[in-house]
Amino acid sequence: MIEDRDELMSHAWPELRRFCRERQVELVEVDLRWGISEEQSTRKETLRLCLDEIRACRPYFIALLGERYGWTPGDDAFTADLCEEQPWLRDLKGKSVTELEILHGVLNNPEMAGRAFFYFRDPAYAQAHGTDFQAEDRDSASKQTALKALIRKTCAAKDIPLRENYPDPRRLAEMVLEDLRAAIDAQFPVKGIPDPLAREARDHEAFAESRRRTYIGRPEYFDALDRQAAGGGGPLLLAGESGGGKSALLANWIDRWRADHPTDFIFQHYIGGTADSADHWRLMGRLAAEIKGWTGDEDELPRTHEDILKTFPLWLAKARIYAQRKGVRCIIMLDALNQLEDHDHARLLGWLPEHPFTGPLRLIASTLPGDVLKAAQQRGWAELSVQSLTPDERRRMIAEYLSRYAKKLDPPRVERLAAAAAAANPLYLKILLDELRVTGTHERLDERLDEYLVAADIPTLLRLVLERYRRDYERDRPGLVSEALGLIWAARRGLSETELLCLLKPADEAQLPAAIWNPLRAALEESLVDRGGILNFAHDFLRAAVEAAFVGDQDRQDDLRIQLADFFEAEPITARTCDELPWLLREAGQRDRLRSCLLDIDRFLLVHERDREELMRYWVWLKEERTMGEAYLASFDSWSAAPRRQDTQAGLAAGNLGHFLKGAALYASAESLYRRAMEMCRKSLPPDHPDVAVVVGNLAELLRTTNRLQEAEPLMRRVLETDEKCRGPRHPSVARDLNNLAGLLRETNRLKEAEAFFRRAMEMEEEIRGPDHPNVSRVLSNLAQLLQATSRFTEAEPLYRRALEINEKRHGRDHPAVATVLANLAGLLRSTNRFGEAEPLFRRALEIDEKNYGGDHPEVATDLTCLAEMLRATNRWAEAEPLMRRALEMDERSYGCDHPKVARDINNLTFLLCDCERWAEAEPLMRRTLEIDERSYGGDHPTVARDLNNLGRLFQATNRLKEAESFYRRAQDTVEKSLGPDHVDVATILNNLAQVLQATGRLGEAEPLMRRVVAIYEKSFGRDHPDVAVALHNLAGLLHATNRAADAELMMRRALEISEASHGKDHPLVAACLGWLGYMLKGANRLTEAEPLIRRVVEIFTKSTAATGNEHPRLRRALEDYGRLLIAMGRSEDQAFAEINKLMEQYGMGLDS
User: Could you tell me if 501 and 514 are in contact, meaning their C-beta atoms sit under 8 angstroms apart?
Assistant: First the structure.
């Protein structure tokens, strides 16, 4: 049957493998007789291996029969051990191994009906091809005829497919392909392809299943876990030695609880059980996604680390509330927390909120001694210590484990093994029993026990096991053990059997003969875990042992990974190869190959779909995250020009690539791709198709991000129009579009239009979702922020209070969503100088978040910063500073000292230090912020420009004007390259630069910059925006300095008018305009016009001082200016003093002297 097998190998299996991978299924074909040499056929273990392989390779079985009966094993192949395991073999001596395989695989197994396929070749084929294809002798022919008759009878009785008289190998391959395609499609339909979330859950379940196979039930532990799951207290932590059975306990308890409580939500996460399981960011993201799926929540899942950390407690709260509503339990199980990757301080558990695990939300975890255990103890978690096996439990485990394989030990040997101190560890005992099962024949049991019981711990035992593997399984293929296990070690997620057989193949073969691989595979059965067809080590002890024995130094590691990279690079581009290849290239330091891999658009799309942040990390490692845009554009041009490339496919790719580059702040490259995507969609879809609206919306959002608001607006209106037409005018997508458009209108200072859209969005959300839905609360908050921006505080406040009421009603008084609205409401009260009302709300928001997130969470750090900013606004700097420093320390612990969030905290602290004129302390902190952001984003990022601008302001304040100018110009160059010459950030920097030029007497250079600032702000925000007022104020000052008093006055009056309309009559910016205008009028000797203006400045700062209880820093200067003005108008010093004192008494204050 060699020709038949070759045809399957070359035509059927590759096509079926591709067919399976489309369904996220791994096909492993095993030829039970392929590759067995004559020498191997004579070995006693060959029959055992064939039968073991049938058991391992279910569910599908195909049998090809010609005229030859095949090899018949001798009587010595039916060893006592084999017959003890397989009693049905005792009366079958003299049968061919083919017949025994068919009996074992199908005929003796009723479950195989529908998954077995038989194919009989036309006898004419053998007659035409000579004696090698015909029966060996008359007896063999008779046995083959009887076997076929038995198969026909069984197939008819059990409805098993049988195809007779196929004419040749080519037709066989066609029939096998047709039959297996139909069977696989029925079991794994395209519509049922699991998404990445489902695949990850499947992999964790596979790991759990590997821990359930042999477990000695310990009722006291099950009872303790039952009490934890049914109770209402805090988390429970399982502790115990490595290999002590914690994972097996949890896996078996979950299986038991799930059967008894089928409606409960159970999330199991075995850290170290899958490739990404040790990353706490992925753990949080996976749990949030599972909660979203369970609860049906409509909120989008977080993508960035910062968003994950911020919203993770919200998802836990949603799970708790949903469980309460449904009357079920939500059980979260995190196994082996000690194996978390030690980045971002994950093992200190700062990412895991302290307080939400109450009521029906239950947390059960396990760990080894170390940082995690200490952190849990500091939080007061309950502990359950998992003890070593008692001698009686060891005896039970020995008997139950061996019974799975129809084996047993006599009592003296059981006692000897149970008495070994190391056997108290379940993993040690399991490894040793596996070895006895595979190698311990009746005659050599004592010898094996002597050999292995020398090992006092698991690492020593595994070293002996690996040495035995090399002795026994490298006879036919030198290096098999070290290469196979080394390659599994080097791969990211492990390797499939098909991949291993190809990687280990002889130079003249398509793959390693199964007969060489199968003995080692059988020995490794309990040491490997199969996750969707991918084999990896079942525990870290084996990984460490393989590394020590076979991997060695860095050069060997690189060699193995390059070998794997070469293999995956040559394979068809699939999700599997795109998961392994870039990771392998980075680990091996192959920079050029990694760059080429990432620029391959087909590979990019698969990596981007799976993990956009990982893709970005590769480019950061290459140090090309700021230059990759042009390379991607060139690669996309080449890829999209390929023959038969469809516009819809290219448009989708352009959109995904544009989205990635936008996230990397490479806006020019992203825009080019978004426009390409829009163009391609126009070619292939109707203009009002919803998919076109998505592409247009992406471009509009990019234009909005880069401050090209006039270009963004018509696109946003087009998206709204398309969604109204395609989805209906009352669809949730329309409400979203309205909200987005309203936000843009607010940014362009068209507040009346924005308000109308916000109100329409709110009306729709109320109609669609009801008046108390969280989406209504969000729109209410947006509308309130707009009203607040237009100084309509009395209208904004009730909206905030209604949003607060909705959230309290929906989530309870102590939910983080309540804290968010409290902070917004407190901000409004702060803006209206109601500091006494604002402060308790800020403090309540802080208290809620501390309760939900714990005292060391980034969201708490944000609350501390908001409270500190309010204290700073009321000049309570001594109270504000420790809060800012605490927020900084918390974020350093959460994110690490070099995270951009930490840089923002440092910035806030430096602003306070600058308020206090503590320049020497502020400067090194500002420089640290710059260093962090340059490392995080690269030197040409807008955030770096912000840092440069801040340093320039410090230098300007300390009269280091030459340094200030240098930093401003560098900031200007950076932000113009990143965001374009008309971005508002450019205007901010130009304004500061112009002030430096003015201070150094270069007024002619300063004026065009200031006029450009005004033009940018007017273009971006409209003529009546408060930022326009600031620019006019500064330009007026320059005109006054150049003796153009009339122009300066007109400009300052316009600035005053805008500021009063935007901020109200008593805002500090209004005071600044009044002060300058009064100064101008005084200089023109128009004292009576100047007096009411300067008096208003005094009133503004006096009111602020009275409201806060702390003297405004500019009050004394205002009093001095007013006093000098009164004296210049003819009052005596005493009269001026009395007049000012009378003014201040109106606000409950007076002058000291």
Answer: yes
